[in-house]
Specification:
The chain is mostly helical. This is Phage holin family protein.
């Protein structure tokens, strides 16, 4: 009885090998396009995050530099209690210049290694 039931079921047409291969290629191309779009989207998101981070870094650097200048001015004012204003400014500038040259020299030596 079950055998007769199987015989009566309609036979579905099978796709040819060429059609199946065509579908496989189309699906592979679609997956590749989606992957490329995903990589582009991720790159854009990361670029936005890097842009924000660089902006915050630059802002922090500017604020820190302004604070450093204020500290230099305060040091000059404090030194005027002991020496003249011109000599205090010259002393602070000389010490900062020597420190900058020393740091630059060390950085230059590290680059040569």
């Amino acid at each position: 009885m079950d055998k007769n039931k199987e015989d009566r079921e309609p036979i579905l047409p099978r796709a040819s090998f060429g059609e199946l291969l065509g579908q496989l290629v189309n699906n592979a191309v679609a997956v590749l396009r989606d992957e490329i779009a995903l990589v582009i989207q991720n790159s854009r998101e990361k670029a936005g995050a890097v842009r924000r981070a660089l902006l915050l870094l630059a802002l922090g650097t500017i604020i820190s530099f302004a604070a450093f200048l204020c500290l230099c001015a305060a040091l000059i004012v404090a030194l005027t209690s002991f020496i003249s204003l011109q000599l205090a400014a010259l002393t602070v500038a000389t010490v900062l210049a020597l420190g900058g040259v020393l740091i630059s020299f060390v950085g230059y030596r590290l680059l040569k290694i």
